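Let's study my pick:
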Amino acid sequence: MITQETLNELLEDAKHTIVFVVYMGMDIPYTLIDVTPPLPRKDFIHLHNVITDQLDEIHISDIGVITTYTKPDGTFNNDYVYELVDNIKTTVEDCINDENITADAAKITAVKLDEDVCDYDFDILRVFDFKYTMWQLCNPSEETMQGVRENYMNQIRKHRETAFVELDQLEEESKQNGATQEDLDDIDTIKQMFRDIPQDVDVSKYKTIPELYTFWPSLLLPKPRTLLTKSQVTMIKDNATLDSLPDDFERDLNDITDYRELMVLLSDLGNLDDYDPGHITMIQNRIRFLQNAQAFLIQS
């Protein structure tokens, strides 16, 4: 927990600049410029979240690293920090306005964005339309993999449609150039091979994303850019921490919609000697998800 002196410095600095505070695993820009917060409850403070444009109530035990940007002479570097925040806001708006991303998913995820997350986690989550957390992708349950495999097959079908368009164009050009019936039959045979791909493919045997991504129909090579890159697949593989977790635990966890209940549960588990670290991680991810969702629902 931060000291009272550090807390006082945070509150004073926030009156004059934007301060980045690591809160529940996220580096969030906060300020108190032109803000008069209400009297806080014991062990809580109020800070204005610049991204969501709302006042957050924060328990002081949840406050992590505090970053204040200053010039060499010790004064606040507001020009730099305002530009940094504007860039984050622009990325958030691009995310929310992306027609390929559902609005709710974009809003829930957007608050997590900073320069580092955008380069890595964000692009991975985008591939799956923000339906899963990074932990779920790295350590997928069978329920998660069912959705991932369905997503993968949809990508195969989508890429196949592009091939059909090219074959239709080839067929039309061949007719115009006086192609023989045998030539046209060959094109139709190739089309049928593409039609048969979904029936000939069984992706149910792949239990993780790295395993799934070893497969792609040879007729549809090269892979489309909408899929994960090799480095992203490697990142998922390297961050896998557990072989499996009970599906019922994940389902029960997703049934809880009040993050405060989960914080109590997290505190109770931390006092046990035989707690499962995998469960702790899942609870922490669920807490962050619910807090972000609540923030953007309020904003909307």
In short: The chain has three domains: 1-101, 142-238, 247-299. The chain has 14 helices and five strands. The first strand starts at residue 19 and ends at 23. The CA atoms of residues 160 and 166 lie 10 Å apart.
